[in-house]
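Example 9 (inverse folding). The structure is encoded as follows.
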């Protein structure tokens, strides 16, 4: 067989064999406050942002106000530290303003 063809096939196989990145699915209503607090910072930011949008959507709010986002972040961290077994999303919906 042609040597160039073998090399090209080997390179193509190596590139095609690259593992795909895994998609992460988070059941938001299953997260506890403890799990939220234990999550890496990037995931906390992601979860908190999603919850903020969920809250805003439930209230038909279409304006982002950073002062409320900051306040809600501080409130939910404090709440979760005191109520680690509670559900995160239910706690956020109860404590957010």
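The amino acid assigned to each position is listed next.
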């Amino acid at each position: 067989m042609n040597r160039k063809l073998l090399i090209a096939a080997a390179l193509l196989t190596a590139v095609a064999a690259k593992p795909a990145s895994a998609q992460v699915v988070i059941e938001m209503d299953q997260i506890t406050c403890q799990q939220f607090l234990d999550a890496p910072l990037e995931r906390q930011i992601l979860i908190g942002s999603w919850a903020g949008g969920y809250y805003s959507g439930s209230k038909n709010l279409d304006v982002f106000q950073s002062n409320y986002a900051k306040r809600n972040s501080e409130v939910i961290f404090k709440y979760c530290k005191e109520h680690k077994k509670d559900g995160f999303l239910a706690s956020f919906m109860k404590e957010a303003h």
